[in-house]
Amino acid sequence: MGLLIYVFCLIDVDYDRIIKNIEIGESRIARKDEIMKAIGKKLDRYKNPWLELKIQYGQNKGKLYNEECDRFMICMTHKLGYGNWDELKAAFRMSPLFRFDWFVKSRTTQELTRRCDTLIRLVEKENQEYDERERQARKEKKLATKSSTPSKRPLPRQAESPSLKKRKQLTMDHYVSSGKRKK
Hints:
The chain is mainly alpha-helical. The chain is 74% helix and 0% strand. The chain has helices spanning 2-44, 49-52, 67-80, 85-94, 102-105, 109-148, 162-182.
């Protein structure tokens, strides 16, 4: 009986720690899903992202990695999944694109992780800006369609100026009189 009470006390004490670890694990999984969705959203904007993908670096492009390497890293992360750094490193080593790029081939998994995280932050920022521009364009389009729809009541008829009225009458007189002459 004493052993059973001791086990229940241990479970009670560790309960908060266990729940906290579960919540941390679930938040990591949720973050991984967010990252994969952000990368997928970015890649969906391109017909062939392996060749066409552009990353808006801003002021911190970095001098060591080139655009081709970053493009490959983003596309392979999407293909392999976020967090598979050993597979990403192997992909760099096996790819014919980087056959003679010793800088990239010699990077450790931690260095690739840091670079990939930097690129993901740039992609997420670009996605936010893209979404904001899209929302603004939809809002402007909605306002434009509202203002261009015709109103239900007819527009008031404007009074014609005397000179325009006279000209119309003269043209009509000329038409009628020319028709009488032919008969």
